[in-house]
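Need residues for this backbone.
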């Protein structure tokens, strides 16, 4: 028990530091006249969903490599990235509701950019839960290989009603675009720490330690 506790401390420290970095970068985000301080949350929720999509895409790629080369670490990487992507996706949804409330003064749940991500959250959660219970490497990698492209395809085809198509990258401000990219990078770093931690847990479980 003490061994597991000691081995978890570096990961907890890395997780805390990377999360702190995300919060600091988000807090230092450049503001604009219309949204004011609410723009910080818009930045964060945008970076959060982009990180989730990147994780799902990476899980799909790792799943493809695992199915071709059959290496245990590739299966573990696909599984861990899929779980990390799901964690970011599920926590992005409450952020999205808060952004709606703060910027639109209400919740518009018929917005396609809410309905489609919510549907994939339900599907993805059930899928990852089933894969966790079955605990089959090949099936997990194959499922992640399919889920990532299907999600990204549907996200790319979403329409907007109230939600702007690309509020950051349509901005004429280079500092806003650059800061958002930096926030995506540090949020992806946080996702990387979570993924690496999960891989260690999977490796320890498979070795019977």
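Answer:
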């Amino acid at each position: 028990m003490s061994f597991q506790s000691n081995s978890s401390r570096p990961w907890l420290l890395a997780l805390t530091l990377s999360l702190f970095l995300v919060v600091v970068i988000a807090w230092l985000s450049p503001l604009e006249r219309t949204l004011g301080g609410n723009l910080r949350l818009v930045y964060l929720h945008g970076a959060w969903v982009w990180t989730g999509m990147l994780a799902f895409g990476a899980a799909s790629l790792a799943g493809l490599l695992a199915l071709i080369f059959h290496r245990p670490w590739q299966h573990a990487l696909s599984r861990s990235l899929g779980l990390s992507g799901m964690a970011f996706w599920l926590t992005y949804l409450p952020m999205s509701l808060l952004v709606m409330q703060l910027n639109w003064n209400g919740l518009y749940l018929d917005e396609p950019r809410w309905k489609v991500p919510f549907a994939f959250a339900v599907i993805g959660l059930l899928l990852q839960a089933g894969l966790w219970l079955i605990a089959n490497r090949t099936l997990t990698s194959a499922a992640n290989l399919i889920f990532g492209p299907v999600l990204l395809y549907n996200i790319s085809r979403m329409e907007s009603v109230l939600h702007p198509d690309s509020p950051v990258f349509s901005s004429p401000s280079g500092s806003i675009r650059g800061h958002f990219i930096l926030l995506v990078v540090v949020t992806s770093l946080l996702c990387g720490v979570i993924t690496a931690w999960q891989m260690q847990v999977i490796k320890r479980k498979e070795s019977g330690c």
